[in-house]
Amino acid sequence: SNATTIRFRHNDPENLDRRLARLGDEAHRALIVVEGIYSTLGDPAPLREIVEIKNRHGAWLLVDEAHSFGVYGPRGLGLCEELGLLDEVDFIVGTFSKSLGGVGGFCVGRHSELELLRFVSRPYIFTASSSPPSIASTHEALRQVLDGHGLRAHLWRHAKRLYAEGKRLGFRMGTDTPAPIAALVFDDRTRARALWQALLDTGVYTNLMIPPATPSGVSLVRISLSAAHSDEDVTHIVSALEQARRTVFGLG
Q: What residues make up the domain containing 169?
């Protein structure tokens, strides 16, 4: 592609608005690319504000729902559905490897021009097709997502509980509201690594993320919840956090 990439500040609609304004009459050719839910902290994109800016400048909008598909929205279709913006977003992409537990991904849109990618996109043309078993398992997982109101309610109950417990224990959470991705944020990577190791020693697997995977001076321990976790699992995670708070940080 001969497109020019222009960055705007993370989750900063005003900065995006200024960047598009600088493009003048060329703004209608711009494609805004954001994630519905960002994988590192679990924070949502301010999609309502971004859609308003997109419409004002006549730009296009692509939302990556990889970490929100299956989790947000009445049918689990992602943050766009949750906010009632499905008809306002031009393109939605996602993966089969997260909520659906499969292989591959998808790109859907409101514009017939999307079909052109089947003929001109080299990654699409030269990627091998999925196998019949993979397609069948993804199809069944999608059916369960669309009918999975109980599973989502179960997941969100755990997400709200873990978020509340993390705040109670004095951890700095990565989001302002509960999310299935619970990030415990630290300024010191040594403390983050110590917590990660302490949790691992008690049978709780988390992701340790340090620069350059995170901004300079920010390290975190990311806990990813799923609907497969039980009440007992969440209780064990909270207990492990309490124990680590005492043994690693010397806090009662």
A: 149-247
